[in-house]
Amino acid sequence: MGHGSVADSATDAMLWSVPNPFRYDDPLPEAEQIGRERERDRLVDLCLDGRNSRLTAPRRFGKTSLVRAALAKAHDAGLTVVYVNFLGVVTVQDVVDRIDRAYGEHLDGALRSFWKSIQATLSAAPAGVGISVTSRTADPQLLDRLALPRRIGTKTGARVAVAFDEFQEVARVADALPGVFRSEIEQHGDAVAYTFCGSHPGMMRDLFAARRHAFFAQATPIPLPPLGVAETITTVAARFREHDRDAGEALDALVATAAGHPQRTMLLAHHLFAHTAAGSVAGPEQWSAALHDAERHVDDEVHSAWDALSDVERRVVVTVADGTVALQGQAAAAAFGIVRGSSTTAAAQRLVADGSIEPDDQAPSGYRVVDPMLGRWLRAGRRWPA
Ligand SMILES: Nc1ncnc2c1ncn2[C@@H]1O[C@H](COP(=O)(O)OP(=O)(O)O)[C@@H](O)[C@H]1O
Ligand SMILES: [Mg+2]
Which ligand has the nearest atom to the CA of 87? Predict the structure, then answer.
């Protein structure tokens, strides 16, 4: 991202000398989340029952925030909880290291000493040699780590809840790796509850819906929809009030622009807050300044997203963002150069798989652009509206 939050918050602090209550870059603590109570309670119930679940949603839809809040609740209810994030793993050794790090960070009290005592008994990589050969997936190191929840459950007599975040990255390391996970953790029965999170809808679907992965397919899917309009308005308005500000009519514009996208909602709220002085009401002027800052903030990202698209994919996202015509109709061919046929269908499927667009029954094209800021830039002719 081109414009860092550090500089933004520094400016805010200088101008208004209160910290901005809207955070848009890290997983949010439960108290700062909008909605998601139902999803959280469902996840907690599944954990308490020792059942597995899966959470697939586009990037920055609040998966990590939600699963961490659920684990915190499960922990309060007496479960041992472990959160592992696989984002960016490329080797089996990375996978092993992430798991070790998670246990090092999340176990407390007696379990912490237990972890230290068993750590020495776990297989280690040969000195100085990182395991980079992806065919060595059934590595003893990894199997030892995957067996840990069972050992801990036996030790404590309590159920264990494990969250594997960005789980699709595991499949990226090697095709066989999810099978290695499965063969170990399917033996854990209801002693361990696993939550699998992933932000690549296509890879998650391949893992969790394919017959050959029947074990994963049994994990209960938890849908993570866009934030509700009413909840968003109530929460954002209340947070402005707590800081002696009134979000005013700008709030309607904000909710319409963010379209329920959690991170975009917070990004816009952050900038609106930054432009609203204490004791004042946010009006059209504050809103337009906030929107302008948010656009600058996402500009690099939007350009990279565009640059990464193929020619056919570009035509598809432009048509989808326009939102007025059928993807494979005459009008799309005339207005956006869509070539009707299988290449367009395939491009749309790829864009759905990577989370750029989503099926939408209401939309004439059958899809909507997931990121409302990207949609805005696309609709305005690949630039920001004046
Ligand atoms: N329930 C929520 N309410 C408001 N904003 C949210 C919520 N969940 C996520 N966000 C926003 O999205 C950002 C990314 O959240 P995160 O949990 O890291 O998403 P993910 O794991 O899906 O990528 C947060 O910094 C926050 O700004
Ligand atoms: Mg995340």
Answer: 2
State whether the beta carbon of 33 lies less than 6 angstroms from ligand 1: yes
In the chain, what's the furthest Cα-to-Cα distance?
69
Identify the nearest ligand to the CA of 66 by its number: 1
> What's the rounded Cα separation, in Å, for the pair 36 and 66?
7
How far apart, in whole angstroms, are the C-alpha atoms of residue 363 and residue 366? 5
* 80-85 vs 192-198, strand pairing mode: unpaired
Tokens 């302008």 belong to 292
- 357-359/367-369 β-pairing: antiparallel
Pairing of strands 192-198, 53-56: parallel
Q: Is the CB of 85 under 6 A from ligand 1?
A: no
- Measure the CA–CA gap between 48 and 51, rounded to whole angstroms: 8
Q: Is pLDDT of 267 > 80? A: yes
pLDDT digits (tens, 9 = 90+) for 279-307: 999 999 999 999 999 999 999 999 999 99
β-sheet bridge partners, residue 198? 56
Atom 18, ligand 1: residue with shortest CA distance: 27
Calculate Rg over the CA atoms of the chain: 23
Distance of alpha carbon 265 from alpha carbon 254, whole angstroms: 7
Which among 171, 197, 183 has a CA at the least distance from the CA of 95? 171
Q: Closest ligand 1 atom, CA of 23? A: 27
Among 110, 74, 61, smallest CA distance to 225 is for 61
Q: What is the mean pLDDT of residues 369-379?
A: 98
Q: Which residues pair with 53 in a beta bridge?
A: 195, 220
Closest CA to 59 of 354, 361, 374, 369: 354
- pLDDT at residue 237 is higher than 80: yes
User: In 3D, which of 142, 145, 155 has the Cα closest to residue 112?
Assistant: 155
Q: How confident is the model at residue 1 (pLDDT cuts 50, 70, 90)?
A: very low
How far apart are alpha carbons 51 and 43 in whole angstroms? 9
The per-residue b/e assignment along 40-55, b for 16 or more CB within 10 angstroms, e otherwise, is: beebbbbbbebebbbb
Please indicate, yes or no, whether the overall pTM of this predicted structure exceeds 0.85: yes
